[in-house]
Structures are given as C-alpha cells and as structure tokens.
Amino acid sequence: MKRHESLIPLSQQHHSLLILAQLIKKDSPQYKGLPTNIPEKRIYTLNKFKEEIVPHFEAEELILIPFILGKNKRIDNLSEEIIIEHQKISEFVELVRSKVDIEENLDNLGKLLSGHIRKEERELFQLIQEIFSEEQLSKLLNQFSHLNKPKSC
C-alpha cells in the first residue's frame, strides 16, 4: 500500500535502518561500500545509532506516538510494544558498545531491528493510514516537517 506523505519521512529512515539490520546479522551478504568485518560493523552500528536511530526514536516517541495514542486500542498496544522494542534495541547497542559478545549481539540487534521496522511499516503505519483522517494526517505531517530538511554544517 502507498504510504501517506505524513509517514514518508519515517519510512525513508526505516529503509536505511533495514540495510543496517541486514548488514549486522550473521552470515550477511557484503554490501558495496559498507563494512565487512565485525570491528568495522561495530563502529558503523554505533555511529548509525547516534546519528540516525536516536533521532528516529525521538521522533516516534515525542511526536508520532503522543499524536496517535488514545484513538484506537490496537494502535495503543502497538505503540507500547514499539517503545519497549526501542528500549531493547538501545540495550543491544550498549552491549555492542561495551564489546560484549559483539558478533552475537550485532546479530540479535539486526534481527530485532528488522522485525521492529517491519512491525511499524506493516502494522502501525497501516493502521494509522486507515484510522486517521486526511486532516489529521496533514497535522502530523506538519509536525514531521523538520525530518527531511538538510542538516546545516
């Protein structure tokens, strides 16, 4: 299904994070221009977490979820699951940062991140598009307007 323009900024970020998720799973294929060994994948993951995942989680937790809560029981339940998964993802990143079983924790992180993104795209975003009016979704779009603006140097 076509993604509503209000959710496109988050969906575009999901695409980048799905590539990360695939990259850090055990026995992942090589991706041109991306790290190929565990130490490089660790550093790449930590940088992606700081630069992309943390701001993405903040956008979801500070803008999206407060906006959608209280309108539908299934959305409320999914929102709660999403927040718990954000915490688990952050915990795996901390294990990777601390160099605890790096390969195993990168693999676990990749699997969790992949499933998490697919849940948001296939379930949460789908429900949002079905339940919220065009007017409501436009209000949401205005709140996300900063996400795709170029970063100043």
Plain-language structure description:
It is a single chain. By secondary structure, this protein is mostly helical. It has a domain at 61-130. Helices cover 74% and strands 0% of the residues. The protein has helices at residues 8-24, 38-68, 73-97, 102-131, 134-143. The longest helix has 31 residues, at 38-68. The model is unreliable at 149-153 (pLDDT under 50).
Q: How many separate helices?
A: 5
Order of helices and strands: HHHHH
The amount of beta strand, in percent, is under 5%
How many DSSP E strands? 0
Give the termini separation.
Answer: 36 Å
Structural class computed from helices and strand pairing: mainly alpha
Primary descriptors:
disordered C terminus, 0% strand, mainly alpha, 74% helix, 153 residues
